[in-house]
Structures are given as structure tokens and as C-alpha cells.
From TrEMBL:
Keywords: Cell membrane, Membrane, Transmembrane, Transmembrane helix. It is a multi-pass membrane protein. Its main location: membrane. This is Flippase-like domain-containing protein. The chain crosses the membrane at residues 25-41, 57-76, 142-161, 173-196, 289-311, 323-344. It holds the Pfam family LPG_synthase_TM. It is found in: Cell membrane. It comes from the Bacteria.
Amino acid sequence: MSDKLPAALPEDDAHFLQRLRPSRLILPVALGLLVVGYLFWRSYKPGDLAPLAHADWRWLLVALLVLAARDLGYVYRIRHIAETELTYRQALDVIMIWEFASCVLPSGQGGTGAAPFILEKEGIPLGKGLAYIMVTALLDNLYYVVMVPLVVLIAGAGLYPHEALQTGFVATLRVAFGVSYLFVTLYAGLMLYAIFVNPKSVRRLLVRLFSLPLLKRWRRTAYRHGQEMVRASVQLRGNGPRYWWHASVSTAFVWTARYAIIGCLIAAFVPMDTNTFLFIFARNITYKVILLVAITPGGAGIAEGAFPTFFGKFIGTATMTSFLVFLYRIVTYYLYLVLGLIFLPRWVTRVFGKRPATTA
């Protein structure tokens, strides 16, 4: 897809597509590759990559299967949460564009901020789409709230990379982890309140927010979206246990698969027992805290730089660690950039009814 857009698009649509234009990939890709290149330059020693010749390709196959299962789980989950208003084709497009947005936009915005727009273009009213995104956010946060005590039980003090960090920084990381856990718990509680207790309060909040002088022109639209959200919330609350059970299980499945990828990749090159695999899984939880506060698109540069600190001790040489950093980012980041460049033009053609303009 070129940087040129279909003609005569509404301003909001054009703005969204501009934010996903291919030229925005240059910065995150350059940052990530520069950090990986620096890691290799600093650490490379002849013979350090010898484990590549003895790789257990079964674990690499498992990693690919876990990736595929995760994405299929995401497709199933969004289709189920949207009450099958999406076809499987639409659900696949939504997930691929969502993942692409997560790679291109800063971590603080990510794909979640783009998701309501994507759902709206698939024919789901914005207010209703917001309610569905609220459900995904709620379940994602509840998974984190439940898993953290479990991983603390598994890893204990080893949850933090004491062996690679100074004591002061470990203490800071511990505080950041605790604050993030508290914030996520409170946010999950707010979402539970908004969906199950008093959805009308969300509408009032929107109206008050858009009553501010700078936002007043959109107050009527905000009220309409709030009304749609109230109706959607009432509908969601009316769903039976089966709806919430399938949504919860699929959420647990996709996030467990997401956190398991690093362990699968390391196991392909380093002999590993079950306890070590679980330990890596647990430490991945604290690793994600670093990525949550990253200001670069998709955490580019920061994800690569922090990886050796959290997982280098399980890999061995610094050169092999650098290689696994690169491999990890290929399958969890660069892969979705490529898939996004494939899916985005087709999606734009389908939802806008016009083929994007191409460069000469």
C-alpha cells in the first residue's frame, strides 16, 4: 500500500489511514534493527552461534503453531464477543489490522485505540464497538490480575532480573510492577462497574467530558455514542454464562500463548525443563511492564534492548541472546508489519469500496 489514499474520504477516515501509512514503518524498523545490530556488534565472538547447528526444530515448529493458534484464538474471540456480527473473514481482517496498528502506533495508543474505528468500518456502530472493546479490555486486564499472583508464586524474588540489574533499578522495577498491577486492578474494577452495574454513568461521563469548551462541538455525537454504549451494555449483561465463559477461556488461551512464545524460542536452542519454562513465562510478565510504558511504536528499540536483561541468563552467550532477540522480534513484530501491509490495502478496498491509489 502506498502513502496515497482513496479520494474523497471523510476526514476521520483519512486521518486514521494516514496514521497507518507505510512510511511510518521506517522509524520503528530502523530503531529495532539498530538496537539488534548494536547488540551483535558488542557481543559477537566466533563460535558463539554454534548452538544454531544443533537447534531442536520441533520447538521452532511449536513456536509457529503457538503463534498461529494465538491468532486463530484472537479471531474466534473477537467474533464471539461481537456476537457473531462479524464473519470469520471480517474477524481475521480486524485482528490483522489491529495487530498492525499495535506495531505502527506508540504503545500507549496501540491497536486498542484503533479497534472501535476498525469495527465501525465493518458495520458495527461505534458505541456498540466501544462496548465490545470494553469487554476485551476487561478480560485482558482480569487475566493479568489473576496471573500475577500465580507468577509471583512460581518465580518469587526471581521474577525480577537481579542478576543483570543494579539493586536500585530492581527496586524501581518492583515499584513500577506493583503500581501497574494496582492500576490494572482498579481499571478492571471500573470496567466491571461500567458494564454490569451502571452503564449510564459512562454516558454521563462522556457528556460531561464533551461539554468542555474545546470538545463541545462533538457533544451531541458523544451523547449518541453513549446511548449506543448503554444499549450494548444492557445487551451484554443479558448474555448468559456461555457467552462469558467462551470469552474468558479464549482470552486466557490467547494471552497464555502470547507469553509462551519466548520460552518456545529459547527451548529450541537451549535444553530446558518444565520449571525453567514456567520461570521464563513468569518473567515475561515483568518484561511486558517495560513494553507498556514504551513510547516508541510497538516498543521498537526498547523491546530489543530490554530482552537480554530479562532472558539472557537462560540463553547462555550474549551472541546467542542477540540472535534470539532478533528471532523473537521477527515472529512477534516484523511478521505483523508484513501481514499488515498485505491485509491493509485489501481491507481498505473492501470497506471503502475503492481500490487505494498506487504510486507510479
